């Protein structure tokens, strides 16, 4: 099972990184979301993997999963929503303002340079 | 008065002048004067203790672990400097009131001045060298503001920048030196360091520490080769020059050399470096000063020269030299401040400082003439004025100093410097005041009001008084000298006298004065020779160095930082892998301590779906809608994974967040292109795949190794599990951690979430207010619109579901403390219920039914959470301490009431507000772009009379 989770983290990271390196805003944002999943799962696994032992205190039960990473990841999920929303808004605003959704600065168009030389 | 007050008064007082600006210029200056006067009087209350030879101490532990304590010390040396800083400060404030014109923002000026004053007093009273460094940097910053006060002048800005660069670099070097010193002694307290002379001088790091500290002192006190910034700082208003360059800023370096004298001086290294730097500066400054035509430039170089003189005296390392240095600091402060102020008066009245355009002012400005001449003659070293006494002592000390084994070198250079010093003083008097009255002054000069001449006049009274009756200054100077020397040497017994007999110093003095007069007689040929001689221009060299550094930085940074995000992302990832690989290859990995758990078919199926969805996203990311659906699957599988691995709270959060994120992305995708075009080259895609694979492998390897090993120390989670019910009153440990154990974190996080939502709102407002508005109004959708925008089935369903969802949300909220749930999840669920109404019936209908703006909901949430935390204060507990109790209200069962629930309510409201405000902002963009929305809940409603026109028409036809 550890192998499955670890490979899932690896695959999500790889997919996220590839998408983050794309040139347009939308895939980059999706890539960041994938990376967020990977990071959240990674943090979550710092409590190691336990099945069938939620951290809800019960009489006579002694084995619980680690609650601390869960609490930290819970807020991380909510915050990452806020951050995604901000990034999406910035990307959308940039596209609406310039009709261009490249993430990189675009080189100057040739029109500016060719003027006067032709 | 406590030393804390003396240091704090100028800083807190700095708030006042800005506020008093509208009350008029006299009120502003008056407030500043009062603040300074209070600090001055406070200082004087400590005089009896200092005179008794005791040291006043005040101490508050600030960061004891770092050795940084707010400890202050007032001994003779500190008192002397604080007296100069505050006393001359008072005169400067009175002078500046009359000097600045109505166009100058006086409140700003006095705020800067008080900040500077506070920083200077802080330096001279610090007992902790780290604290001293803090104040040291503060003087650099506040002097930058003062020098550049006339922001409209390019010289002012350049001069301020140069001063900040040079003194700031010196300050950095000094930090290094001070830290070494503190490491050698094992304490950063000055009073302890000063008692460890032998330990410090025997340490192999003595020389680096000495050089670094001297770099700080030399840059601050404008010693060769760092002297060039001081003349350029003359672009400041004259009160600033008079204050910074007579008694304070440039004396800070001198002060520190005097302060460190007991532990650093007396070694050959100290003697060689300090004496030669001082000697060169003294001679160079005096020679340049003679040929300057700007009055302030002349005074600036003369200041450089006199600072060199004092440095040289400190460098000799003898007790007599130290005493002469202390005496000259006092004398120089009096006559130089008076001279700067006189130069300001001339500039103010004649509208020029160019000596070539002046002359004959003796008859037009008799008062200024008297003040400036007495001060200048004192600077030249004429008997019966205080400058003569200390100059005589300097020549006496120079006579005994042997540098580089050449006995005549120091006396000859000292006489040479004094000669030029006398020459520029005579030139100042001769070319400005004497000679015939001219008729081409830019303005008709006359004596100013008492406000301008009284401050320098008071100083000249001191100049004459000490000069005629040196014995009045003698006890004080000896007291200060005693605290400079510390335990290192005895205070010399020599008395201050005008007549010492026919000693060599007298002959040197006579040579200097006579030579100075002679020099003035041959000034014109000498000037022609000077102008013809090639000289390096410091400013051009400085600017070339700055330019070179800037070019180098650009060459280094631009290839890495060229505005391409994908480049930064690639470089950043590769650097992180490299660092991680380094840590991996140099660290050790123990054997696995856990055995791998078996995976069942369901687990494998879930894993396969996750992998397939991720792979699909990467392969088909150009189809944006499809990739959005696929990321939904990924999120769903992650949520299920959380359920499987015993994290029900996480699963619920992830699931609900997934819903709102997808809605948000869909709203954005509405405007963005539907597909991503193929742009990147094959090579680039190969490179990106490489980066992605390396990153994936790295995280896989890391997490795999990590999961098979137990934590190296016991996790603190044990504490949370044990105390969750006992201390927090809840059985859902995750929720108790959120609202109780780590409540402060959660509080910060809801604030961040609220700020993010407000940011989105602000961006929307900006977009809607700008040119984007017109674009949106003219926007044509690239997809066919649905005919039925608000379908009846959906409207009816969402209405029915609404109370159910709200009830579920309420239930999840209430049970959160003991079962999976809580404010975060409930907030997301309720948001989804509200969003469904927006989706079904449109923005117009839904927002018309909105009672409270979402900003208010966010604010209320943060406030409730904060007030719950503050409530703990009333019971004498720290912020956010929670309490709970069990109550029974018939007919209910016994239940729990916890303050944590109130905090959770704040979390709930903040989450609802933030999520809704973000989504609402996106919908506002969409609303502007779409066809006019009607305010009805659904398009087709049998109970309504006003059917849409086309529908009504078709209905009639059917009939």
From TrEMBL, chain A:
The keyword Methyltransferase does not apply. Keywords: Cell membrane, Membrane, Transmembrane, Transmembrane helix. Pfam families: Oxidored_q2. It is found in: Cell membrane. It is a multi-pass membrane protein. Its main location: membrane. The chain crosses the membrane at residues 26-50, 71-96. It comes from the Bacteria. GO terms for cellular component: plasma membrane. The keyword Transferase does not apply. NCBIfam families: PRK09094.1. Belongs to the CPA3 antiporters (TC 2.A.63) subunit C family. This is Multisubunit potassium/proton antiporter PhaC subunit. It comes from Litoreibacter meonggei. The lineage of its organism: Bacteria, Pseudomonadati, Pseudomonadota, Alphaproteobacteria, Rhodobacterales.
Automatic annotation (TrEMBL), chain B:
One of its GO terms (biological process) is monoatomic ion transport. Residues 936-947 have a biased composition (Basic and acidic residues). The chain crosses the membrane at residues 77-97, 109-125, 131-150, 162-185, 205-230, 242-264, 270-291, 298-320, 326-346, 367-388, 408-429, 450-473, 502-523, 565-584, 596-618, 625-645, 651-669, 690-707, 750-772, 793-814, 820-840, 852-875, 895-919. Residues 683-764 form the MrpA C-terminal/MbhE domain. InterPro entries: CPA3_Na-H_Antiporter_A (IPR050616), MnhB (IPR007182), MrpA_C/MbhD (IPR025383), MrpA_C/MbhE (IPR046806), ND/Mrp_TM (IPR001750), Proton_antipo_N (IPR001516). Residues 610-673 form the MrpA C-terminal/MbhD domain. This is Multisubunit potassium/proton antiporter PhaA subunit /multisubunit potassium/proton antiporter PhaB subunit. It comes from Litoreibacter meonggei.
């Amino acid at each position: 099972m550890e192998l499955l989770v670890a490979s899932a983290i690896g695959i999500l990271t790889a997919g996220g990184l590839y998408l983050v390196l794309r040139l347009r805003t939308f895939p980059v944002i999706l890539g960041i979301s994938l990376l967020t999943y990977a990071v959240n799962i990674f943090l979550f696994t710092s409590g190691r993997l336990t099945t069938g032992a939620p951290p809800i205190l019960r009489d006579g039960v002694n084995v619980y999963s680690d609650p601390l990473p869960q609490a930290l990841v819970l807020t991380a999920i909510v915050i990452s929503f806020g951050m995604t929303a901000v990034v999406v808004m910035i990307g959308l605003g940039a596209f609406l303002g310039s009709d261009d959704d490249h993430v990189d600065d675009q080189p100057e168009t040739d029109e500016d340079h060719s003027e006067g030389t032709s | 008065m406590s030393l804390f007050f003396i240091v704090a008064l100028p800083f807190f007082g700095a708030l006042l002048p800005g506020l008093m600006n509208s009350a008029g210029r006299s009120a502003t200056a008056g407030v500043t004067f009062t603040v300074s006067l209070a600090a001055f009087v406070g200082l004087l209350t400590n005089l009896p203790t200092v005179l008794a030879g005791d040291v006043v101490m005040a101490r508050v532990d600030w960061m004891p672990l770092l050795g940084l304590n707010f400890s202050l010390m007032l001994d003779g040396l500190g008192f002397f400097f604080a007296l100069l800083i505050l006393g001359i400060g008072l005169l400067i404030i009175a002078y500046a009131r009359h000097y600045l014109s109505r166009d100058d923002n006086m409140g700003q000026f006095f705020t800067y001045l008080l900040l500077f004053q506070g920083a200077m007093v802080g330096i001279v009273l610090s007992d902790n060298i780290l604290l001293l460094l803090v104040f040291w940097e503060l003087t650099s910053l506040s002097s930058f503001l003062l020098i550049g006060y006339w922001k409209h002048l390019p010289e002012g800005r350049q001069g301020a920048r140069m001063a900040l660069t040079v003194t700031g670099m010196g300050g950095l070097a000094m930090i290094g030196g001070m830290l070494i010193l503190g490491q050698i002694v094992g304490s950063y307290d000055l009073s302890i360091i000063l008692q460890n002379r032998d330990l410090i001088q025997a340490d192999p790091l003595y020389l680096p520490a000495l050089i670094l500290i001297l770099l700080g002192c030399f840059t601050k006190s404008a010693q060769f080769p760092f002297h060039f910034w001081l003349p350029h700082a003359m672009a400041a208003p004259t009160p600033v020059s008079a204050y910074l360059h007579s008694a304070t800023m440039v004396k800070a370096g001198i002060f520190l050399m005097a302060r460190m004298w007991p532990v650093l001086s007396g070694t050959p290294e100290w003697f060689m470096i300090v004496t030669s730097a001082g000697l060169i500066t003294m001679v160079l400054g005096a020679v340049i000063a003679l040929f300057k035509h700007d009055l302030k430039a002349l005074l600036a170089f003369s200041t450089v020269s006199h600072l060199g003189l004092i440095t040289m005296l400190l460098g000799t390392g003898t007790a007599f030299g130290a005493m002469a240095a202390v005496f000259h600091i006092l004398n120089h402060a009096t006559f130089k401040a008076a001279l700067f102020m006189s130069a300001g008066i001339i500039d103010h009245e004649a509208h020029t400082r160019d000596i070539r355009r002046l002359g004959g002012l003796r008859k037009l400005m008799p008062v200024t003439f008297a003040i400036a001449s007495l001060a200048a003659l004192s600077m030249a070293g004429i008997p019966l004025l205080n400058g003569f006494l200390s100059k005589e002592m300097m020549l006496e000390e120079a006579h005994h100093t042997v540098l580089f084994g050449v006995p005549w070198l120091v006396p000859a250079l000292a006489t040479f410097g004094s000669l030029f010093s006398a020459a520029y003083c005579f030139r100042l008097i001769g070319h400005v005041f004497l000679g015939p009255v001219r008729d081409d002054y830019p303005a008709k000069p006359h004596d100013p009001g008492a406000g301008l001449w009284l401050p320098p006049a008071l100083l000249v009274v001191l100049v004459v008084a000490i000069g005629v009756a040196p014995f009045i200054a003698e006890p004080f100077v000896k007291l200060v000298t005693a605290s400079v020397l510390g335990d290192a040497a005895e205070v010399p017994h020599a008395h201050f006298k005008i007549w010492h007999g026919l000693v060599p110093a007298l002959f040197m003095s006579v040579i200097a004065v006579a030579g100075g007069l002679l020099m003035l007689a041959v000034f014109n040929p000498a000037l022609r020779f000077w102008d013809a001689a090639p000289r390096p221009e410091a400013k051009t060299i400085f600017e070339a160095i700055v330019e070179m550094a800037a070019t180098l930085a650009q060459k280094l940074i631009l290839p890495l930082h060229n505005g391409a995000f994908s480049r930064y992302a690639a470089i950043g990832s590769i650097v992180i892998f490299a660092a991680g690989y380094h840590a991996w290859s140099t660290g050790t990995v123990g054997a696995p301590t856990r055995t791998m758990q078996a995976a069942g078919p369901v687990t494998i199926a879930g894993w396969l779906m996750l992998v397939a969805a991720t792979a699909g996203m990467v392969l088909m990311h150009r189809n944006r809608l499809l990739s959005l659906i696929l990321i939904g699957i990924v999120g769903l599988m992650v949520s299920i994974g959380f359920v499987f691995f015993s994290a029900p709270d996480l699963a619920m959060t992830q699931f609900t967040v997934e819903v709102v994120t997808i809605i948000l992305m869909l709203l954005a995708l509405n405007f963005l292109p539907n597909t991503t075009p193929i742009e990147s080259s094959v090579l680039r895609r190969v490179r990106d795949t490489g980066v992605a694979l390396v990153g994936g492998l790295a995280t896989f390897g890391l997490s795999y190794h990590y999961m098979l090993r137990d934590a190296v120390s016991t996790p603190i989670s044990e504490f949370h599990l044990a105390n969750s019910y006992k201390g927090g009153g809840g059985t859902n440990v995750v929720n108790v951690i959120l609202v109780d154990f780590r409540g402060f974190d959660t509080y910060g996080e809801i604030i961040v979430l609220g700020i993010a939502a407000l940011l989105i709102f602000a961006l929307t407002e900006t977009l809607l207010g700008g040119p984007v508005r017109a674009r949106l109004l003219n926007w044509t959708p690239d997809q066919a619109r649905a005919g039925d925008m608000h379908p009846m089935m959906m409207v009816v369903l969402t209405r029915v579901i609404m109370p159910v969802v709200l009830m579920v949300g309420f239930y999840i909220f209430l049970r959160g403390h003991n079962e999976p749930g809580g404010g975060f999840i409930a907030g997301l669920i309720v948001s989804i219920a509200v969003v469904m109404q927006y989706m079904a019936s449109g923005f117009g209908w839904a927002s018309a039914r909105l009672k409270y703006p979402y900003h208010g909901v966010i604010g209320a949430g943060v406030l409730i959470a904060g007030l719950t935390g503050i409530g703990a204060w009333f019971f004498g507990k720290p912020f956010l301490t929670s309490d709970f109790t069990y109550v029974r209200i018939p007919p209910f069962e016994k239940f729990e009431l916890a303050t944590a629930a109130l905090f959770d309510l704040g979390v709930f409201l903040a989450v609802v507000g933030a999520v809704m405000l973000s989504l609402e902002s996106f919908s506002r963009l969409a609303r502007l772009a779409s066809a006019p929305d009607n305010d009805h809940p659904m398009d087709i409603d049998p109970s309504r009379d006003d059917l849409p026109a086309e529908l009504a028409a078709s209905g009639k036809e059917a009939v």
